[in-house]
Fold this protein.
Amino acid sequence: MGNTVMFAILAVLILGSAVMCVTTTRIMRAATFMLFVLFGVAGLYFLLDYTYLGAAQISVYAGGVTMIYVFAIQLVSKQTLQGMVERLKGSRVVFGALMAVIGLATVVLVFLKNDFICRAAEVADVEVPASAIGHALVGAGKYEYVLPFEFISIFLLACIIGALVVSRKVEEK
């Protein structure tokens, strides 16, 4: 019962913070709400007794990535940020809502076609050992994730180089 209550609290925190993150007009508030979302996900990991993943979530994502966002926000000039304010037009709202409904219908159709909802209960009862998860994370075979991790590291390196280029002062001649 306690796990269910804690899950409900974390779910409300995550969903509320995510909605506030994408709807706020102030960029520093958006970064703060994103931090709350990442802490909530770490709380879910701790609730599932995945203490290593929870600690990694806090240290890497909540700590590192959020600080990168905050520094990037601080490096951008106020004139650039002021030009980013955009008014919502009725046609764009209708188009966005239509795309959201199409996406929801696609997800529901995939769930129904693959019998995901019926098989979810039997899959949830299976205990996966930590050694199998570790092997899947560092393996290079089919359904193993070392290649996506390498792509993510290259992407993060490109982000760091981009931040250095943005932060470099331009010399006037």
Observations:
- The two ends are 69 Å apart (CA to CA).
- The chain has a mean pLDDT of 81.
- DSSP finds eight helices and no strands in the chain.
- Residues 111 and 120 are 10 Å apart (CA to CA).
